[in-house]
Amino acid sequence: MSKADKIKGELDVLLDIKRQEAAAKFTEEKKQIYAEGISSVAASGVLENALNVNSKAPNFTLKNTLGKWFSLYEELKNAPVVLTWYRGGWCPYCNITLHYLQEKLPEIKKTGATLIAITPELPDNSLSTSEKNKLEFTVLSDVGNVVGKEYGVVYTLTNQVASIYEAGFGLSEVNGDDSNELPLAATYVIDTDAVIQYAFLDADYTERAEVTDILEALHKLK
User: Fold this and answer.
1) pLDDT (tens digit, 9 = 90+) per residue, 77-97?
2) According to DSSP H, which parts of 111-220 are helical?
3) What is the pLDDT of residues 5-54, one digit of tens each?
4) 141, 123 in Cβ contact below 8 A?
5) Partner of 71 at 20 to 30 A CA spacing, among 6, 59, 164, 174?
6) Per-residue model confidence as pLDDT tens digits over 111-126
7) Beta strand pairing status for 138-141 and 114-119?
8) 109: left (phi over 0), alpha (psi -120 to 50) or beta
9) Please, what are the domains in the chain?
10) Which phi and psi (to 5°) does residue 13 adopt?
11) Which residues are within 8 A (CB) of 33 and not within 5 positions of it... i.e. 6 or more apart?
């Protein structure tokens, strides 16, 4: 089934509004640059190399927005984890998704799971994103995409996209490095044995995991 034929979920409807706004605003040249950027991600092998269903999720320990340490395996002792990456607070598709996840947080919590968002943004910037979206779930800063690389979800931007991001909002300053690397907007459901039971991976940064799919995966754990 093609993307055009699929039934849109609630989140995808919201994201599609932003896609249409971008299409109306961007020049043809900019549209082409972003399209080539997505094609570059797809061709990079990141989708094939990223951890997928039945993979063991590596442990990690990162600081949250308040400077407290968070360990994946410690959390998994208590509950399954929904682990979702976002590119940064500068990304409108990320902010739409984070806001939507916050709205759906009670449904996720009802399954007994913990929602964790992870970003390459520096801690001060991830705190700003968390406050802006009034997030009540944990947000972790993966500076240098160290954890993202362990999960295989990191790719390098094309030079043209990187130039647009640098001129537009200063990507290197936001992330604290000039690698021009970002994570996929990946989402995993990880069971208490640290095994990935659901994986959302897409080269297109405007595509995100639907909460209905996440909840379905969580319900199957019981």
Assistant:
1) 999 999 999 999 999 999 999
2) 123-132, 146-151, 159-169, 171-175, 211-220
3) 445 799 999 999 999 999 999 999 999 999 999 999 999 999 999 999 99
4) yes
5) 174
6) 999 999 999 999 887 7
7) parallel
8) alpha
9) 10-220 (3.40.30.10)
10) -60, -45
11) 158, 160, 161, 164
Strand 81-85 versus strand 69-71 pairing type: unpaired
CA distance 131 to 123: 12
Residues 87 and 183 sit within 8 Å (Cβ to Cβ):
yes
pTM score, two decimals? 0.93
State whether the Cα torsion 130-126-210-189 is positive or negative.
negative
Q: How far apart are CA 110 and CA 202, in angstroms?
A: 27
For the record, the structure tokens of 96 come out as 């739409």
Structure token pair of residue 46: 């990141």
Question: Residue with structure tokens 């599609």?
Answer: 16
